[in-house]
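Entry 14. Structure prediction run on the chain below.
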Amino acid sequence: MSNQVLTILRDAVDATCVLTDPDVMTGYVRDWTGRFVGRTAAVVRPANTAQVAAVVQACAQHEVALVPQGGNTGLAGGGVPTRGEILLSLRGLSDILQVDVAAGQATVGAGVPVGVLREAASAAGLGYGVDLASRDSATVGGTVATNAGGLRVLRYGDTRAQLLGVEAVLGDGSVVSHLAGLARDNTGYHLPSLLAGSEGTLGVVTAVRVRLTPATRARAVGLIGLASVPDAVAAASLLRNGLPGLAAAELMLPPGIDLVMRACRLSPPLRGTHAAYLLVEVTGDAPGEDGAGGNGPLDILADAVAGLPGVADASLADDRPGREALWAYRERHTESINTCGTPVKMDVTVTPDALPSFVEAVPAAVRAVAPEASTWLFGHVAEGNVHVNVTGAAGVGERVEDTVFRLVAERGGSISTEHGIGTAKRRWLPLNRSPAEIAAFRRIKQALDPAGILNPNVLLPAL
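Output returned:
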């Protein structure tokens, strides 16, 4: 990158917001897992949409590629400048957070952490449907870029389902803004849906309008030990179809539970060891609230669990400490796995009927290409979403990915459900998308990013 471009970037934002010191930039060019490490000549930290537009316009004019980055919690390399691109950090776009109680909506800057949005919604007596373990670091803009789902997709849907409006800077520096949040608005293409999951390849999201949810008055959590993975899948299906208040259903396996206990110094959650663990959450009204009778979520959950086949043991809680203690066995999987070394991380989805055979097949398939590797499986069982983590696969990571992704494709599943395609999965996109679809993707990118500068090395396979 020329000194001229660097000068232009410093003119576009405050000069102090352009970082060039390699030591300072280290945290921006390395992903959370440490697997993806890139390089850049500069990290640019705009404070508002106008500055983002000026930066993008300058990069387009000088044909300088850039990579937008939110909280840098992605796990597919999509926010890392792997080929020397300019790093556009959007964490500074955090001064917009307006909750509209009457509409049940919020207008949010792209740099606002998901946890901050959830707290603001809660303070107003509302909720936000997207929640994930990295809530305190992951930004709203980043979750839009990857169409993140998180822990309660079962109840509220993914990030795309929350979007009512978007403000973004396109590849030529022009700004599109449609943040009114009208409940019904059929005036053309729905740009929020297009930009959600585009990984910064079509535009740089600077703000969004999102729907909020009614506040949860009461919730109960259960950790259930079952005789087999098929029993866990069947139980999740029965609960999903029988409990309107079911908000989450998470599958865990003995190796993962044991690792979490060791790494986090937690006691066994249940008596004995079980072939599969199902963590479920049910929401509803507290019994007797507002004059209403009937059972609360804890009683409802207890009755439902009692009727499930294959249950060997269960622990239920409806108080906050108890709920958080049970959730810890699921939420602390990621940090625990990282204690075993840099993992190869794959978030995939298969149909519910294919999930048991997939979970059974993955460890053996991985060992065939990486005999010393360990495989850790957990995920959102009601959606068929499995997080496949492999440690001890140094030097054969791509062979492991190829093996797992082909198992997924054979079962009619998706190779990406949470963190996008990024750089990690782009070569395997044809497993899920036809040549005609990929060609259509390229035409859309050409239309919105004519200079091809927006995150050019992610999502679409190399030509």
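The chain has a mean pLDDT of 93.
Filed with the rest of this week's runs.
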